[in-house]
TrEMBL record:
It comes from the Bacteria. Keywords: Signal. PANTHER family: CUPIN DOMAIN PROTEIN (AFU_ORTHOLOGUE AFUA_3G13620). Residues 46-110 form the Cupin type-2 domain. Residues 1-21 form the signal peptide. This is Cupin domain-containing protein. It comes from Rhizobium ruizarguesonis. It holds the Pfam family Cupin_2.
């Protein structure tokens, strides 16, 4: 089931449909748990980007904290200048803000995405 969810999320974000480790964009679900805020949960996901790969514009039903594990990622948040982060740097993305992320380095890039979201809502909503 976890692999099916990862493939579905990769498709939503424009990733390849192939179910193997060499996907251009691969999401791995790490944690999902209720929290003390009624109607909300925490979700943690590792996202691996091949060089040059873009996670197209999308939103989340809550806040996201993106931590770059390796490589270099450029984030574009609606209404803001792009920001480029390297391994060890973090970015806060408010609820409902349309954003994208792109691997602008020469090797693989990875982020740890932690979401505090409304329980039961789709985690990723493609931008219109």
């Amino acid at each position: 089931m976890k692999m099916i969810q990862a493939i579905a999320l990769a498709l939503v974000l424009g990733g390849a449909a192939a179910a193997h480790a060499e996907q251009p964009l691969q999401r791995t679900d790490l944690l999902k748990s209720d929290i003390d805020v009624p109607g909300h949960e925490v979700v943690q996901v590792r996202v691996d980007f091949a060089p040059g790969v873009l996670a197209p514009s999308h939103t989340h039903p809550g806040e996201e904290i993106a931590f770059v594990i390796e490589g270099t990622l450029e984030y574009q948040l609606e209404g803001r200048q792009p920001v480029t982060l390297k391994a060890g740097q973090s970015l806060f993305i408010p609820t409902g803000v349309t954003h994208s992320a792109k691997n602008v380095g020469s090797g693989k890039a990875s982020e740890l995405a932690t979401y505090i979201v409304r329980k039961g809502a789709p985690l990723v909503v493609p931008a219109k």
